[in-house]
UniProtKB/TrEMBL annotation:
GO terms for cellular component: plasma membrane. PANTHER family: OLFACTORY RECEPTOR. Belongs to the G-protein coupled receptor 1 family. It is a multi-pass membrane protein. It comes from Camelus ferus. The chain crosses the membrane at residues 28-49, 61-82, 102-120, 132-154, 237-260, 272-291. It comes from the Eukaryota. This is Olfactory receptor. Putative odorant or sperm cell receptor.
Length: 314
């Protein structure tokens, strides 16, 4: 960040946000504040329920608790800055912008890796149940989470350092509500050739690889499930995967729409898709996982003290 005075005459950026109309700012503030509070409370309840219920001490819920924690951090990187922009100035410092971008990519890709790890967990549970306990040992689970959290930071650091090499000479207006790589590169007055090559090769591999791993896992799961003779067995197998598939579709569908396109084609129309994977998916995850999971619903009821009192002996 010390390169600001050397490579750029821009010391701050202006985030235009979702709307420039003054009458829209307060409704947007209330909307996103509500979504943020729901995200924090919902994901925090998931974490507390998993930590407090012995029946939820399994690899699947271990990974889910880290996914919920990442969702909290991911949303916190974005929404508070949006709320400030709605009610006050829309400026953000050069260092603050690059810092936000770093954590957006680090935490967003951590989400992606954790979803791949959860798909692997379901693959082992359904396709190789007799070795599940051995394969998904506590040591293996901790290692998978550690890799899912550390590798994305290296990926994010690479793109942040490359962006820091660019010159920003003229406009400092970002047509977005957050500091994203593509809008920032469009503002640069120096060549972004290296950045675009790295995005197309390393970036695409880093985003697509977890998705391909998930697709492979669920292909194998489907093959296994269709070979289960009983309808009850098929329903039980599908019920353990339905929530995860819903989250994967929501998350990756919006990411591919935004990022698998050239930087020059990035427009304001991509804002809604960005909101889906940055804010909406984190808010909906607790509802998706809890509504379709009896064990987790029971854990939440225990946490909230809603268990029905037992009848007194006669």
């Amino acid at each position: 960040m010390e390169r600001v005075n050397q490579t750029s005459s821009v010391s701050e950026f202006i985030l235009l946000g979702l709307s420039s109309r003054p009458e829209d700012q307060m409704p947007l503030f209330i909307l996103f504040l509500t979504m943020y509070l729901i995200t924090i409370i919902g994901n925090l309840l998931i974490i507390l329920a998993i930590r407090s219920d012995p029946q939820l001490k399994t690899p699947m819920y271990f990974f889910l608790s880290f996914l919920s924690f990442t969702n909290i951090c991911f949303t916190t990187t974005i929404v508070p800055r949006m709320l400030v922009n709605f009610v006050s100035g829309k400026t953000i410092s050069y260092a603050g912008c690059l810092t936000q971008m770093y954590f957006i990519y680090a935490l967003g890709n951590t989400d992606s890796c954790l979803l791949a790890v959860m798909a692997f967990d379901r693959y082992v549970a359904i396709c190789d149940p007799f070795h599940y306990v051995t394969v998904m040992s506590h040591h293996c689970c901790v290692l998978l989470v550690a890799l899912s959290c550390s590798l994305p930071h290296l990926h994010s650091l690479l793109h942040t350092l490359l962006l820091n090499q660019l010159n920003f000479c003229d406009s400092n207006v970002i047509h977005h509500f957050l500091c994203d790589l593509s809008p920032l590169m469009k503002l640069s007055c120096s060549s972004t050739f290296v950045n675009e090559i790295v995005i197309m090769i390393e970036g695409s591999v880093f985003v697509v690889t977890p998705f391909l791993f998930i697709a492979f896992s669920y292909t194998q799961i489907l093959i296994t499930v269709f070979n289960i003779p009983s309808a009850a067995g098929k329903r039980k197998a599908f019920s353990t995967c339905g929530s995860h598939l819903t989250v994967v579709t929501l998350f990756y569908g919006s990411i591919f729409y935004v990022y698998l396109q050239p930087v020059s084609t990035y427009t304001v129309r991509d804002h809604m898709a960005t909101i889906v994977y940055t804010v909406l998916s984190s808010m909906l995850n607790p509802f998706i996982y809890s509504l379709r999971n009896k064990d987790l619903k029971q854990g939440l009821r225990k946490l909230m003290g809603r268990r029905k009192p037992q009848a007194a002996p006669s």
